[in-house]
Recover the amino acids of this structure.
């Protein structure tokens, strides 16, 4: 079996405060991230994008889409 990375997305989670006693977390997904990009490059990009939003950047995740074949 072989697994091949097809595409990668980056997900930014922002803490936007508390409303009615509940934490408000917003999620923004950026598709088609360069699959050869480094973790440092993703982090730097996330920080640059975070400056465009009103909330506080709480977490950065990546989502990989892979093909599995024989």
């Amino acid at each position: 079996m072989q697994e091949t990375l097809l595409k990668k997305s980056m997900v930014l989670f922002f803490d936007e405060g508390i409303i009615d006693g509940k934490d408000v977390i917003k999620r923004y997904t950026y598709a088609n991230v360069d699959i050869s990009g480094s973790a440092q490059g993703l982090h730097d990009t996330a920080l640059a994008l975070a400056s465009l939003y009103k909330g506080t950047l709480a977490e950065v995740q990546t989502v990989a889409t892979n093909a599995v074949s024989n």
